[in-house]
Amino acid sequence: MRAETETAGLRVRGLRHAYGGTPVVEGVGLDLRPGEVHCLMGPSGCGKTTTLRLVAGLEPLQEGFIALDGTVLADGNVCLPPERRTIGLMFQDLALFPHLSVAANVGFGLHGGLRGSGRAARDGRVRRLLDMVGMARHAEKYPHQLSGGEQQRVALARALAPSPHLMLLDEAFSALDVSLRAAVREEALDLLREAGVPTLLVTHDPEEAIAAGDRVHVMQGGRIVQAGTPDDLYEAPANEFIAGFFGSTLRFSSRVRGGLVKTPLGMVAAPAMPDDAEAIVVFRADAVRLRPDYQGNGQAGHVVGCRRLGPACSISLKLDNGAAITLRKPIETPHRIGMRMGFDLDGRFAFVYPGDPRGDDALGDPCLDHEAAPVR
Fold first, then answer.
1. Per-residue pLDDT for 369 more than 80?
2. 294 contact partners, CB below 8 Å, separation of at least 6
3. CB-based burial, 235-261: b 16+ in 10 Å, e otherwise
4. Which long-range contacts (CB under 8 A, 24 or more apart) does 326-334 make?
5. Sign of the alpha-carbon dihedral angle for 49, 189, 134, 179
6. How far apart are CA 317 and CA 308, in angstroms?
7. Which residue from 107, 175, 250, 310 has the fewest beta carbons nearer than 10 Å?
8. CA 101 to CA 150: how far, in whole Å?
9. Among candidates 146, 182, 166, 192, which has minimal Cα distance to 56?
10. What is the helix (H) or strand (E) element at residue 167, kind and residue range?
């Protein structure tokens, strides 16, 4: 059955799903065009894997519409089984057959043969796929003889074997060592882009989402709360939840006075909020520009702690106004304990959101806010 529009790629509208009366997906919509990689990101239990399973046909559709390349996969009247959806799947558990060689594992994806072709065509397809993923010289090896990255390439070749119109990846790279993960992911996604296959990657890792996705869809409580490019989400997060997901942050609660919010780091503009409204201010670490050459002008504090975090360091400051903050900065940032440190603010990375209506006593003095600590 053809969809109302003949748009190539994936089109999802109004997905809703519940388990035992508990909603887990509420009104999800997606659009993926050929060659695009989109990331569906959120914490555990937000509904991202259920959304992927609905698209794949592994869960029966309860409400909504799913179409691929103009063909309806599921709606109120149609629900194609997974094997008829021309969708490739890769999970964290690669599920390679241990008793089959690399070539046989890839060939399994062609079980039943290529349409109108014999064994020679199947063997040729396997060779081309193994060449494409750089595994041709390992064709006769078995999975236990391969590294984790090599197994990942074999799984990708197997998923590509039947020429899927869509690829779904559910935490597919998270089992790899950190040193391998980024390189293997980049190789795999480059191949999918070159093949023109729209790809939906489910992940709980913000760094992976930003690095991998052409667009990122952030899920919270079963809903997509913001979708956009990685730059969109980093530079203009729609709410406090999203701001805290992408990078190290500082959080303060206060009230709006004359279109401004007072924080230990300085005043922040809040022109869209009414006077006396409760506000939450979130600063990215990028917003605080440390000045080790402090000469007595502007805001300042003393370094009271530092800790190395690989290529970065965590610097703790006791500010002159009594507040304590911790920032993640490049390791080359001067950070000797006891040194005087000034700082400036970059307002582009300060975000103001409505706070909880708990009254002045609950909010307290914003310059001594106990919540002035890194969220991530």
1. no
2. 300, 340, 341, 342
3. eebbbbbbbbbbbbbbbbbbbbeeebb
4. 326/250, 326/373, 326/374, 327/248, 327/250, 327/285, 327/288, 327/290, 327/374, 328/248, 328/285, 328/374, 329/285, 329/290, 333/290, 333/292, 334/292
5. negative
6. 15
7. 310
8. 13
9. 166
10. strand 166-170
Contacts of 103 (CB under 8 A, 6+ apart): 126, 130, 139, 140
> Once rounded to an integer, what is the mean pLDDT over residues 140-154?
91
Indicate the average pLDDT of the chain: 87
The structure tokens listed for 186 are 């980049």
For the cut 80, the answer to whether the pLDDT of residue 108 exceeds it is: yes
Q: What is the pLDDT of residues 314-354, one digit of tens each?
A: 999 999 999 999 999 988 888 889 999 999 999 899 999 99
Nearest to 166 by CA among 86, 95, 236: 86
Nearest Cα residue to 281 out of 250, 257, 258, 259: 250
Q: Can you list the domains of the chain with their CATH numbers?
A: 10-235 (3.40.50.300), 248-368 (2.40.50.140)
Separation between Cα atoms, residue 347 and residue 337, nearest integer Å = 27
**What does the pLDDT look like over 127-139, one tens digit per residue?**
999 998 889 999 9
Q: What share of the chain is helix, strand, coil (3-state, %, to 5)?
A: 25, 35, 40
Strand partners, 168: 89, 200
Q: How far is it, in rounded angstroms, from Cα 196 to Cα 9? A: 10
Which tokens belong to 105? 């594992």
- Identity of the highest mean pLDDT range in 106-115, 148-157, 207-216: 207-216
The span from the CA of 123 to the CA of 52, in Å, is 31
Instruction: Give the chain's length.
Output: 376
